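[agent] plan:
  1. take the single chain provided in the ticket
  2. run structure prediction with default settings
  3. attach structure tokens to the ticket
  4. add a short note for the reviewer (M.T.)
[agent] executing step 1
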Amino acid sequence: MVNMRDGEKARDFDDFKKFKFPDVVKSQLSFPDLVVVRPAFLEMDFSTFMISGKKQLFIYEPHDNTKLYEAHIQEASLDFNPTSKKFRRKKLLESTFNGHVPC
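[agent] step 2 finished; step 3 output follows
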């Protein structure tokens, strides 16, 4: 589940100033200034991923969706520099992600 309140700011991406999301779509987004990031492909051992960095997990009972509401959010992608071993906020995408957000 994606917590859209913690989404990335669209303005932080390299192509923000030249990217034009269709107004007809953008006007329907609950969080038009945020994006959900689709990371660059990175070959990494799953156990290494799990023990490095910060993660947050919310678990809700599957039969109780009263604490969630459905929303769409724009997608974006990251780029990985293998030399510096850092990610860069590279590209805003024309697609949206349909997720459930905690109320």
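[agent] step 4 note for reviewer: The first helix runs from residue 23 to 26.
[agent] ticket updated
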